[in-house]
Amino acid sequence: MYKLSAGQSSIVRLALTLSTNPKIALVDEPFENLDPARRVLIVKWLKEYFNEGIVTTHELDLLREFKDWDSFILINGKIYGPVSVADLIEANVVEGKIENATLTIELQEGKMLSFIKNAQIGAKLTHLGSIDRIYGVM
Q: What is the mean pLDDT of the chain?
C-alpha cells in the first residue's frame, strides 16, 4: 500500500481544495513539511487562486511573497493588526512601547514589543526566521 509523506499529503489536500473554486481561503500552515521548491509552488497557488482569506504561518521568510496582503499577529489569544506585510517585513522588533510604531504587541506580564521601520535598533523581524522566536527578543 502506498502512503504519502506529510508534505505530499499537504499538497494533495490544497489541490483538492482548489479544485472546488473556493471564494475564501482558510489555510493553516500550508508550508509545513514542504521542501523549498514545493513552498514556492504553494505560494504561487495561494496568490493565483485566492483573493481573500486567512493563511496562518510561522514562516517569516515567505512573507516577502505576500507584500500586498494585510497581516495580523495572534499572540497570547490577542489579535494585532491589520498591518501590511510590506511594513511588517521592513520592521525591526524592539522591546517596549515605541511612539509611532507600525505595531505594538503585548506579551506576558505587560511586556511590550514594538515593530518599527527605519530603525537602527532591535532585531529585523525577517531575521528571526519564525514568529515563535519573537519571544526570544525580550
A: 85
